[in-house]
Structures are given as structure tokens and as C-alpha cells.
Amino acid sequence: MSSKLKYYIALHVELLLFSLGGVCTKLAGQHKFLSFWFIFFYGLVILNLGVYAIVWQQIIKKLPLNTAYSNKAITIVWGILWGLVFFREQIKWNMLLGAAIVILGVIVVVRADE
Fold first, then answer.
1. How many CB atoms within 10 Å of residue 32?
2. Contact indicator for 7, 58 with CB cutoff of 8 Å
3. How much is the pTM?
4. Which residue, among 3, 25, 4, 21, has the nearest Cα to 72 in the 3D structure?
């Protein structure tokens, strides 16, 4: 496995985990302010952001910043999936179209850097 591919995989695993912060935020919002579960889920968000910040700094040492940053848009796709899995939200055609445009944009930027 090439070194660059390894960093792209690490980037996307990190972005998958980063997108779970949105799930924790929504779960926290479903509980009474300052209740145990509210604090628990927001604690997970803070932990998530801390780990994300550290890993992000390591990844941008190895990948061009514009490539790494453009890949962050993939969290929109994860958000659609998490909405379906955790909250039983409906996926509509315009969401799929938007996700496809995001993926195409990421591909264009990544290929331009190669």
C-alpha cells in the first residue's frame, strides 16, 4: 500500500469519526439541559473534536491542505447515512444528488493534485 493511500484512508476514517460528533450533538439536544445524558453526549463531542484536531494536524503534514480540506465535504455523505441509521430520517432524491455532487467535487480536487 502506498504511503499516500495510507494517509487518504486515515483521513477518511478520521472524517467518519468526526461526523459522529453531529450524531452526539443531536442526541444531546434530545435530553434536558445539563442532565446526565446531555453532559455525556456533549462530553463525547468535546472528546471527538480534541482527537480530530490532533489527527487532522498529523494528516495535513502528509497531504496537501487543499486536498485534505476538500475531503472534509464527505462528512455530508456520512451525515445522510447517520440520519438514516440513528434517527430513521428519510433520504430524498435531492440529498442523493447533493451527495453525488460533493463526491464528484472531491474526486476532481484529489485528481488535480496527482
1. 8
2. no
3. 0.79
4. 21
